[in-house]
Amino acid sequence: MTDALTDAVLRALLRRAAGRDRSATLAARVIVQAMIPPAVRMTRGQVRPFGGRTFDAIGHMTIAALYVVARSGRIHTRPGRPAANLALDTLRHVCRELAADREEHGEVLAAAQDLADRTPGPAEMAEARSVGAAAAAAGLQPTGVLSEGEAGRARLELLELVLDAMRSGTLSPADGRAIAWHYTTDPVTDAVAATRTGTTAAAWQRRRSRAVARLTASLQLSPAA
Length: 225
Fold this sequence. Notes:
The protein is mostly helical.
């Protein structure tokens, strides 16, 4: 199936899963089954050798969160990426339950960098080059180019979200850089970022916190049509 058809089918399933009859339960189960690969990646990214965060424990939590999101009756308005938005919202639920000790609202973005990525195909490689070029032009890449270590699916999705938010006016260019420079495999420290942008480390950190909050709010699920 084409990407457009896949998106349309997923949106239809999400709308059906919002109902109260037996077909809603079946639709939600189909959605969960279809989202098993990203659910496995989320689980692997959250497993830790301490605190009971085993693969089985996190896996059960992830599947439960995915089912809740599927039955919520709310669909992202951002066109063309229902699967990515569904995965991000599920990850946000999981991170909130784990109560990770990180920056407020930023856990979903930081944890996304730990997701394991499969080997990309030609279309994904072309998309990665396109996103990387746009991100470099917008100043979102600290080094100016997307390195091989950063070309994973999670990093690309984060850059796409930030770029879209900048285009829509949700984030300013400085806001976008505050997020993209921090949530990466080799983050730019607040002190270095402040020197580059002519501000203070504290002011840069506040900018990032506000930018993350605005981006998170823009990704909140909206009522389905």
